[in-house]
Fold this protein.
Amino acid sequence: MAGAAENGAPRSTPIAERGITTANQFAQMMSAVMSDLALGKLTAQVANAMANVGGKLLKVSEMQQKYGTRGSGPERELQLVRDGEHTALPAPPLEAPPR
């Protein structure tokens, strides 16, 4: 990741682009966010949003382990709605931006 450090881009960007699927990747991402914030490469608002999303990701992982059922593999799957109860909500109408 020398390129990210050399050009002044946030260290968290390439991690985010790859995606977060493991606890180790999550820890690397949050460490990079902390560094980026301290170095002024992220605003406090963006860092706060990322921390909030990270907390929700951890909560889903916790719920999956606690309440999930075993599928065909070793991983647990958490069903968020019962079969047949999912209802798609209609999209809100598009409005012209105020002038």
DSSP finds four helices and two strands in the chain. The radius of gyration is 19 Å. Helices lie at 2-6, 12-18, 23-38, 44-67.
